[in-house]
């Protein structure tokens, strides 16, 4: 389809530049740009590696001369939104990517926005110039999708957490990304009806407050992470069905349980549109080993500062979820107390099996461990506090610090890590300042005088520099005109 | 100038150069008859780094990958075998080849020049390695987003002006 269109193009543009046909084509281009953008974003969050082949001859589906495969499910969802509306001035199309843990916690990781502003470029040729730039924009998007933190999380998703997406029109609520979110400008394409912009904003604080702190020791929290899916699934399932404004397709964590989990309700997102999980293309057990999964979950639970984006995170909701789990599923294990806080023996065996082969993961892991060690037993306190609670250390240290800590961390002090971290982060002092410190006040003054003299000299000669720049700019404009 | 470990050299350079090449690669052109042509399709592959926490995208062309690896491998060997402070740079240049009148050889006009300067460090323990692994990954992420979201639709005049100023280090 597109292939023949390409062949037609060059002759058509000569006859009727800026014609009605151009306008129609531009709309079509924007539509496919939106569709392909959604494919690129969602496919990069499936947790798989992409591999598409180059083709010397394009076929109908190879829009923008880029081999972006269409995932049927994603395409169907995208078309629902694209068929009625396209991104126009003032109305952006957003793709929101969020994370949900097995416990039912969720948070928005990033929002990609395809929008348009009113800067029109009437000279931009729809055929080829705009089309090719859209291709470039998609290439930028492909590269950028691998850069944000959500990409790494998506690659690690498994039974502990899954990545979801949602498409909607309107303004993105960036405050949902927590404090210190960052923005990216992927690129823009000027067209005769406005400039298409593609931007993204992403969360930098990847943490979910622990809502079970009031019920359990940190040990039990850890324990739960090590559990294999059946027990936790009932809990998650309950949490899903306990609230429910919105239909949700949840992750299929294993083949056997997928039937039970296909649809259930959630209250996590605004009710205006459907939230669909990035489809898992394989339902096999996750390739990452458990300790790595634990690592990622730990990391997401690191700081207790960021809020859960939506689920009612009260201890009550969890317990009510438990009750419902018994009715909803026919799980092998009844959702009893052991469901949430399993006994020590399976945990110990898992620990022995996995932890010795795991290298110290990274700095943030250490921080994560410390944070989980430090979780106060009180739920309310846990939302804001990072202070250590040394009374809890003995139990958790055995599990967390001994097995996974970096070689030079000490066994029992909470401050060591902080000290070490500061040491690593602090830049080495400049030699000049070193000298100043050594020789105390007088050289310091001398140094300052010298510096101010120098600054003064430069300021005096500022006009020389200005003239020089001006002359260069004149040169530039001459040479360009 | 970025400090990297010896074993990271290849991946640092590959990830930056491959991203650039992917971004600047077009599909194969087929001229049909006068004034008409069709363009082929560019496929791509996600490539995970072994020694850096980073994934980059490259064109799905093994020939391109091998050509790049050959050059970078030579660069790495040169860097690792040299004496004294291990610092080096490698450049990727996009240029236009312009035919000139006989007997002069064809002229090469550089369009873009990308240079990576590396400082090779030796790390003593796994913890430092892990930090380095993450940090280099972060820096590569910044570089990639810088590369791919450059000024859009820059006119030739603006590009030339920028080139002129860059050359004079203004």
Automatic annotation (TrEMBL), chain A:
InterPro entries: ATG13, HORMA_dom_sf. Gene3D superfamilies: HORMA domain. Residues 296-322, 374-392 have a biased composition (Polar residues). It is found in: Preautophagosomal structure. It comes from the Eukaryota. Keywords: Autophagy. Residues 296-339, 353-392 are annotated as: Disordered. Its main location: other. Belongs to the ATG13 family. Metazoan subfamily. This is Autophagy-related protein 13-like. It comes from Saccoglossus kowalevskii (Acorn worm).
